[in-house]
C-alpha cells in the first residue's frame, strides 16, 4: 500500500540519516587530509636532505677551472716557456646535428686544410662525444671575425679563449726543457693511480719530456672550481660560487739560453751533445743535444707524418744524447785511470814505460796500436795524459784488471744514473765480469781489459756522466748531482733548488789528484798537449782532455782513413775540459758523432764555447 | 535566530545569493592560484593574466548559476544528463583527439568537452533519481542508480580519460553513500570493485595508462622516461622543506626540471616554494571549503539539494586527493588538475559552476523560510 502511494517522507529521519553520513564523510576527509599532510611531512621534513641533494644535483654543475701553468725562465730571467692567449675553434660533437656537414661548411668559411681536418678526426676519436675538441688551435683575427658573424649557423661550435704553451727558443733547448702535449690515455691512468686526476679535470696538456715533465707537479698548479646553476637544457643561468685555480709555480733554470743557442748554432750540421756544468754545485749552464726538433709541434698535436719522420730519422732527433746517448768515453777517462793506477800503486808519478807504437799481451800475438803509430818513446803518467799515450794505459789497465777498474770508475758515476732533474736518462755501461756473463754469457777476456784502458770495449757513458766525472776529478773527489733547476718561485717566495752531492770519491794520497789535474792543465798549455793549438792565446787558463772514440774496430793491419769509410763509422770526437785551471767554475763536455779527432774537432769547439762563456759572464758582470 | 542575524549582517550577500564563508575560501584559493601560476609559468605575466581572466569568468559563472532557481535545476537534471550521454556518444563516434584521447566534440561553431558537462549532470541526475523516494534508498533504486552512473563513466573511460571517469564515478557514488546505502552493501561493492580491477587492466586501459600505473608503483624503474615526472615532482616537494625556497625561488620549477609545472604539477611548485607551512595552509583551506560545503548540504531542506551539495563537495575533495596524491607519489599519474589552482580554464569553470549550485542551495533555504 505504502509503496504504491507517493512515499511519506519522514523529514527528520532523512535529515538525521544524511547528517550521520555527512559526519562520516567529513571525518574521512579529515583522515585523508591528515594522511596527505603526513606524506608531505615525510617528504619535506624527514627526507628533505635527500631531496635537497637531488635538487642541487639537478641544477648545480661544477665546472673545473684550469690553473695557469707556471712559466720557465733561464738563469738570467729570460722566458723559455710561456702561455700564449689564443682563440681556438672548438666543437662538442654531441651538440652538432650533422658533423660532416658542419665540417664542410667550416672548411668553406675558414679554409681548413686536409691536415687540420685529419688532426681533428684523430682527436675526435680519442676524446669522448661530449668533450670539447679543437678544430683550429690558433684562429687569426680575421677567421675569428668571420666565424663570429655566422656563429648561429653552427650549433655546437664555439670560439674559446685558451692559453697555449709556447717555447720561443724552439729546438735549441728541446731536450732539456721538454714540452707539454695533450693528456693521453697513459697519462690519465698514471694520474688516476696517483690520485691526481681530479686536479687535472680542466687541464688539457701535461709535461711529456724534460723539465716540463720532471717538475709537472710544481708547474701545474691546483684546479679551481666554478659552481654554476644550469637549467634543464644545460644552459648556465648564473654563477653560484667560484674557487679560483691556484697557478703553477714558476721555475728558473740554471741554463743560460744565450750560451745554449750559441752552442746549438755552433754545432751546425754535426750531431752530438755538449754540456756545460758548474763543478761546484752541479748547475747546468748549457745542455745541447743535436739534432733536435721544435717542441711547439707537440703542443699543437703533432701530425702522424711529422711524428713518423722524427721517429724514423736515421739521426734519432728524439734521443736526448746528453743523458741517453751511450758513447765510448775513449781517452777522456785517462786522467781518472791515472789517479786510480797511482792509488793502486801500479805506477808512481815517476814510472816510465817504453811505447813502440803498440802494445802486446805477453804470449798473445795481437798488437794493440797506439794512435801515434811510431810510438811516444819513454812515457810517464804525465806525458801519457798530455800526449794521450794509449800504450801506457793498455799496460796499466791490464795490470789493474777489470774488477778494480769497474769498482772504482763506478764511484765517479759510470754505469749509474747521475740523478739529473729530467727523467730521460740512461745508465750506460760500466762493464764487469758479471755484466758480460749476464749480457753475452761469456767470460771476460784480458784483451778487453786492455781496450778498457783507453775507454773503449764495452764501456759506454752518457755525456752527462762524463761531465760529472770530470767535475768530480777537478773537485778532487766531491761529486755533484747535475741540476737544471735553479729556483722555484711560489708567489713572492723564491725557493732555491736543493744542491745535492753523491758520495765523494776518496783517495789515500791527495797529491794523486794533482798529478792528473796538472797533466790535464798541460794538455792545453804544453806545446805537446793534444789541445794546445786550439787553446793557444785563450784569455783564461783551462785544462782538459781530448778523446777520439772508435765507432768501428779497425782490423789488424788496416789504417784508419776518415775519407774512405762511411760517415756513420767515423770516429767520435770527444773533449772534457774545465776553466779556469785553478778553482774551476765551469766544466765542459763535448761529444760529436762521426766527426773525427778530439783534438782536431772537439777541442776547437770547446775553445769557442769557453770564450763565449767567459765573454757572457763578463758582459753580465758589468751590467 | 542565527540565520536571521546573518541575513541582517550581510543582506547584500543574500541578495547576490552567495555564502560568505564559502566565498572567502574560494577567493583565497583564487589568490593562491594567481600567485602560484605566475611563478610556475616562469614569471610569464601574459599567462598569469589569462589565468586571472579565467578566474573572473569562473566567478561570474558561479554567480550566474547561483541565480538559477533550484526547482529549475531539479527539473532539468534528467534532460541535461540525457543530452550529455548523446554528446558523449558523439565524441566516441566523431570526436577529435588530442594527446591520444578523444575528448572534444566539434559542433561546428564551438568545440566542447561533454565530459566536463557530465561532471555536473551526473550528480544532478543521480541525486534527482534517488530523491524521488524517501531516504534511505531502496536496493532496487540503488541498483538502477548504479546503472545510470556506469553508462557515462564507461563512455568517458573509453575516450580514454581516466581522471574524469574517476571523478564522475565518485560523484555518483557519493550521492549513493549519502543517500544511506547500507554498510553491508558498501562492503559488497568494494569487493566487486576490486574484482573489476583485472578487467579494467586487461580490456579498458590503454598502453600509456598501464605505463602510468607501473611507473607509479616504481618511478625509479624508468627515471628518464615515464618515471621522470614523478621523481622530479618529489624532488621539488622534498627539497622545499619546512619553509620552502621562497616565491619564484623554486629551482626545480624555475629551471624547468619539473614538467607540466603550471598545470597538473602546480602543487609541486607550490610545495617547493612555500614548504610544509604553505602546504598546511593550502590543505586547511581545502578542508575548510569541504567542511563548509558539507555544512551547506546538511542545512539544505530538500533531499535533492542535500545529495547534490554533498556530492559536489566531496567530489571537489576527490580532485584535491587525486592531484596531491599523484604529485607526491601516493597515487598513479592521472590527469587531474589541482582544483581552482592549476592553470587552465575548463575544469575551473565547471568547478565554479558546481560551487554556484552550492551557493544556490546555501541561500535557497533562507529564501524559502522568509518568503
Briefly, what is this?
The complex is a heterodimer of chains A (623) and B (371). Chain A is of the alpha+beta class.
H/I helix tally of chain A: 22
* CATH topology-level name of the largest domain in chain A: Beta-lactamase
Contiguous low-pLDDT stretches of chain B (5 residues minimum) are 367-371
Task: State the share of residues found in helices of chain B, binned by percent.
Answer: over 70%
Per DSSP E runs of 2 or more residues, the count of β-strands of chain B stands at: 3
Structural summary, described in words:
The complex is a heterodimer of chains A (623) and B (371). By secondary structure, chain A is an alpha+beta fold. Chain A has 2 domains: 62-253, Penicillin-binding protein 2a (Domain 2), CATH 3.90.1310; 257-310 and 317-555 and 568-622, Beta-lactamase. Chain A contains 22 helices and 23 strands. In chain A, strands 2, 3, 4, 5, 10, 18 and 19 form a 7-stranded mixed beta sheet that branches. In chain A, strands 12-11-23-22-21 form a 5-stranded antiparallel beta sheet, with helices on both faces. In chain A, helix 10 runs antiparallel to helix 22 (598-622). Chain A is elongated and about 155 Å long. Chain B has 371 residues and is mostly helical. Chain B has one domain. Helix content of chain B is 73%, strand content 3%. Chain B has helices at residues 2-9, 11-15, 20-40, 45-66, 70-94, 114-131, 139-157, 162-178, 183-204, 207-217, 228-240, 251-254, 266-299, 303-327, 346-370, and strands spanning 96-98, 101-106, 111-112. In chain B, strands 1-2-3 form a 3-stranded antiparallel beta sheet, covered by helices on one side. In chain B, helix 13 (266-299) packs antiparallel against helix 14. Chain B is globular, with a radius of gyration of 21 Å. The model of chain B is unreliable at 367-371 (pLDDT under 50). The interface between A and B is large, with 42 and 49 residues.
